[in-house]
TrEMBL record:
One of its GO terms (cellular component) is cytoplasm. It comes from Glossina brevipalpis. SUPFAM superfamilies: Nucleotidylyl transferase (SSF52374). This is Tryptophanyl-tRNA synthetase. Transmembrane segments: none annotated. Gene3D superfamilies: HUPs (3.40.50.620). One of its GO terms (molecular function) is tryptophan-tRNA ligase activity. GO terms for biological process: tryptophanyl-tRNA aminoacylation. It comes from the Eukaryota.
Length: 254
């Protein structure tokens, strides 16, 4: 969540970061709940039925949720930032979130706060194609494996080796099935190949961390042709690094 001045009028707007909002302290959550109740008092059941399509059989929690979604667009939710100022809110969101904040715009004047403004975006397309939006539930196992590998490599580049290592545990590929290896553009054609690639990447992380013996032991299990040249090169690098370290130690003792 961040605040900034808007144009020549010097009015303040703020952009809501819901993930950061969820991590706020206990006293802020109390204010959050109070504003939820205030919004709920301004919206009737008939209104939420018309906006969201709720029916008589829907549970109370579902009916009350729109107020919780709307409350970050009211600046008094963040008194530690804005004090008593009534500040305009800018909400970047996907188009499916529009009903929540249209409701908020109707409620805000009744609470004596300015209406929020929206920036709409389209859905993130799914990795399987643009016919549906992205969802972790629908990701195939091979995409999950690639995500772990890319995530681990990114963490290595940021020198976060301890965080990178779990992404390269071979157990991530234990449940791959034959369909995953028939997927278009997936160059690993067997479970053994996938396991070897993951083990090699884990050895790289261990090498960078300085765990040379563990890395070498792991490299000895990487026998698939797909990683053969890389395994050989990394073994040579580790041997030379260890030899240089040993020579340096001998020199320092002399």
């Amino acid at each position: 969540m961040k605040g900034r001045k808007s144009g020549k009028t010097k009015k303040y707007i703020y952009i809501v970061d819901f993930e950061a909002f969820a991590k706020l302290a206990h006293n802020v959550i109390i204010i959050h709940i109070k504003n939820i109740i205030r919004i709920q008092k301004c919206v009737t059941f008939n209104q939420v039925k018309g906006i969201f399509g709720f029916g008589d059989s829907d549970v109370i929690d579902k009916i009350g949720f729109p107020a919780a979604q709307a409350v970050p667009a009211i600046s008094s939710t963040f008194p530690f930032i804005f004090g008593n100022k009534k500040v305009h809110c800018l909400v970047p969101c996907a188009i499916d979130q529009d009903p929540y904040f249209r409701m908020t715009r109707d409620v805000s004047p009744r609470m004596a706060y300015p209406k929020c403004a929206l920036i709409h975006s389209s859905f993130f397309p799914a990795l399987q194609g643009a016919k549906s939006k992205m969802s972790a539930i629908t990701l195939t196992l091979y995409i999950r494996l690639l995500a772990h590998m890319y995530g681990g490599e990114a963490l290595i580049m940021m020198d976060k080796l301890a965080e990178a290592r779990p992404h390269f545990e071979p157990t991530f590929v234990s449940t791959l099935n034959s369909f995953d290896f028939e997927t278009k553009d997936w160059y690993l054609k067997s479970l053994d190949a996938a396991q070897n690639v993951v083990r090699y990447n884990l050895a790289v992380a261990l090498n960078l961390k300085g765990d040379f013996e563990v890395a070498k032991s792991l490299l000895n299990t990487c026998i698939h042709p797909i990683v053969a040249s890389k395994v050989f090169a990394l073994k040579v690098y580790i041997d030379k690094t260890q030899a240089a370290a040993a020579a340096s130690l001998v020199t320092s003792r002399i």
